[in-house]
Amino acid sequence: MRLVGPAGEQVGVVRIEDALRLAAESDLDLVEVAPQAKPPVCKLMDFGKYKYEAAVKAREARKNQTNTVLKEIRFRLKIDTHDYETKRGHALRFLGAGDKVKAMIQFRGREQQRPEMGIRLLQKFAEDVSEVGVVESSPRIDGRNMVMVIGPVKNKAEAKAEARRASQRAESKAANEAARNGDAPERVDTSPDKAPMTQSLADLLPDGLRLGSSAAEADKARAEQEKAEKEHAAQAAKAAADKAAADARRAEEAAKAAAAKPAQAAKPAARTAPAEAKPAEAPKPMAVPKPTAKPAAPKPAARPKPAAAPKPAGKAPAPGAGQKKPGTAE
Predict the structure, then answer these.
(1) Is residue 155 over pLDDT 80?
(2) 3 close to 22: Cβ distance less than 8 angstroms
(3) What residues does 142 pair with on adjacent strands?
(4) Cβ–Cβ under 8 Å, residues 41 and 2
(5) Is the N or the C terminus of the chain less surrounded, counting Cβ atoms within 10 Å?
(6) 129 and 98 Cβ atoms separated by less than 8 Å
(7) CA 105, CA 45: separation in Å to the nearest integer?
(8) pLDDT tens across 103-148, in order?
């Protein structure tokens, strides 16, 4: 096979084993670029880098490709001035972006008999947008409509590039004005975090000598802990002394208050006298008479019961029933 180096230099015709060995030594890939040639051509290259560069080129090609779109704007023959200005603004925007514009005038009824009026309107429209567009198709009749096509002066790629440059110029101008006025945004520090700076020499010592410094730090921490314990004990003793003084002051005030009161020993003699000399008790107040119960209201008289109806008399006794037969013993 014919071998080509990574820079495009011709190495010569070599065997496949030699080409693979050269690729392994140079840490590259052996890629066959022309399999139909006699002998086939292979190249030493970094295949991953080659694929990445090819993808970047394809992306740039898609970014710069232009897809021209035909925009349509419709008029009426009796269009008002304000509406005409609005349609013209739309056409200027479309043509500035690199798209074509199809201007169409719609005729109704007897307006079809005056096509010259539509031609004059389209010619005026073409003159108004002549800065960014040129006439590609002259006015022509299409059924009830009259159509004219206007193409952009700059293609879409140029329009995009110009718009990108204009936006960059505007951003740079705004940044310059902000910097001139002192309102520039602060820069963000994106540098990696650095090790904190210390004033201790122990960080610069080797590991073997750093143990002594750690022992000194432990002794210092122990001394600080003992000092804190002593301060705590002193504060507790002071609090106990203040409490004892407050208790003594409270006891003294209680003694003064007890001396100010009259002696409880001089009690009235009536309590020491015998039980017989007790004064007579005060008469108890008379009991209030209880209110008498109200008389009950008389109950209504019971209604008389209706007299029972007389029972019908029984059958009359048969004649001779009460008489005794002759000859019978009583």
Answers:
(1) no
(2) yes
(3) 145
(4) yes
(5) C
(6) no
(7) 62
(8) 999 999 999 899 999 999 999 999 999 988 999 989 999 889 999 9
How many other CB atoms are there within 10 angstroms of residue 286's CB atom? 6
Torsion region of 27: left, alpha or beta (phi above 0 gives left; psi -120 to 50 gives alpha): left
**CA dihedral angle for residue 161, residue 163, residue 166, residue 171, rounded to 10 degrees:** -100
| List of residues 6+ apart from 158 with CB closer than 8 A | 98
Question: Cα-atom radius of gyration of the chain, to the nearest Å?
Answer: 65
**What does the pLDDT look like over 25-70, one tens digit per residue?**
888 888 888 888 888 888 888 889 989 999 999 888 777 666 778 8
As a whole number of angstroms, the distance between CA 45 and CA 29 comes to 5
pTM assigned to the model: 0.37
Which tokens is 179 given?
Answer: 């910097």
Q: Are 3 and 11 in contact (CB under 8 A)?
A: yes
